[in-house]
Amino acid sequence: MKQALFWKPLKGRKVKCQLCPRFCNISEGKTGYCGVRQNQKGRFYSLVYGRPCSFNTDPIEKKPLFHFAPGTVCISLSTVGCNLGCLHCQNWEISHPEAVFGREMSPEEVVKYAKDNHLPGIAYTYTEPTVFFEYALDTMKLARKAGLYNVWVSNGYINPEPARKAARYLDAINVDLKGDREFYKKVCAVPDHKPVLEAIKLFKKEGVFLEVTNLLIPGYNDKEKQIQELVLWVKKNLGPDTPLHFSRFYPYYRVKDVKPTPAETLDRAWETATKSGMHYVYVGNVAGHPKENTYCPKCGEIVIKRTGYYIEFVKEKCEKCGEKIPIAGEKWMK
Ligand code: SF4
Ligand code: SF4
Ligand SMILES: [Zn+2]
After folding, report:
1. Which residue, among 179, 188, 245, 183, has the nearest Cα to 212 in the 3D structure?
2. Would the CB of 33 count as within 6 Å of ligand 1?
3. Rounded to an integer, what distance in angstroms lies between the CA atom of residue 255 and that of residue 89?
4. 96 CB near ligand 1 (under 6 Å)
5. Are the CB atoms for 47 and 38 separated by under 8 Å?
6. What are the boundaries of each domain within the chain?
7. Using a 6 Å cutoff on CB, does residue 22 contact ligand 1?
8. Residues of the chain whose pLDDT is less than 70?
9. For 31-62, what is each residue's pLDDT tens digit?
10. Rounded to whole angstroms, how far apart are CA atoms 62 and 65?
11. Could you name the CATH architecture of 54-291?
C-alpha cells in the first residue's frame, strides 16, 4: 500500500481522485470505481502498489506494438483493477475482481528480473496501467535508469496531468480507441470518449511512440461510417504513419451473444483505412493473416514479415523503392 498521487481532500474526510476522468468522490473506508484506490481516514492510498496479479514475458507484437522494437520479448506486468467497465472485457477476472490480489514484487525486483533475464523492457498491460499509476511510475523510473524500455497498453482514460507525468518515462504506447461516444456509453460505462481522444493526442504531443487498436465488435462499432470516422480522426490527429490495428472480437464476458468478427469486416476496415491514406494498417487476432505483415506504402513490398508473433525479417528501408519505414526503439533490437 502506498499513498496515492493525484487526489484532493474534501469535507467530511472524503477524497476526490483526480487520476482519471471519473473523478470519483470517495467516502472513508471506500474505494473508487477501479476498486484499487482507497480512502483511509481521509487520506488516499493505492492498494496495488508492488502487487502484480500478472507477471509474464511476451513478444512486443502481442501488445500489439508492431513498429516499436519489433522481435523483442519484454516483461508484461499488471495489477488488478480497471477504470472502465467494458461488457466484452477479456480480462474481467483481474479488471474487476471482488477483492484485490497479487504477489509481492517491488519496482526494484521487477527491474532486477528484467536485467537478470536479459529482457530489454517492460510492458504495463492486461488491465489498465492508469489505475496502478504509482507502481507503474516508480517502476518506469528505475527501468529508464537501467536502460530498459517502458510501454503501456492503455484504454487512454486518464487525466492530462498524470498522462504527462507518465509520458516522461514512456517509450511507446498502444491505446485502444474502442469506438464512438455511443460505444463508450453503451459498452464501457463512461459517458464520453473525449478524454480518450485528448489523452491520445497528448501522448503523441509528448513524443511517445504511438499505435492505435480498434476491436471490431459486430453490431456495436463495425458500421462503415463508424470505421471511416475513426480512421479519419487518427489520420488527421496522429498522421498517416500511425500504425492502426483492427482486431478480431471473440465472444466474452457479457457479450456472448455476438459472433466473432467476420473476416470480411476486418478486410473491409483494412481497405477503408488504406484507401483513406493510412500507411500501416493491420488485422489482429487472426493467426497467420497476411495483413499482419508490414507493406511498403509506396510500392507494396513486404518490409516486416510476421507470422503470429514470429518475425522473419525487418527492413527499416524498403529494398525495392528506398522508402523509410517508421520504426522506433531500434536500440533494443540489437
Ligand atoms: S482512478 Fe479509480 S478511483 Fe480514481 S477516478 Fe478513476 S476510477 Fe475513480
Ligand atoms: S479497458 Fe480493457 S481491461 Fe478495462 S474493462 Fe475495458 S477491456 Fe477490460
Ligand atoms: Zn517500397
Report:
1. 245
2. yes
3. 9
4. no
5. yes
6. 2-46, 54-291
7. yes
8. none
9. 999 999 999 999 999 999 999 999 999 999 99
10. 7
11. Alpha-Beta Barrel (3.20)
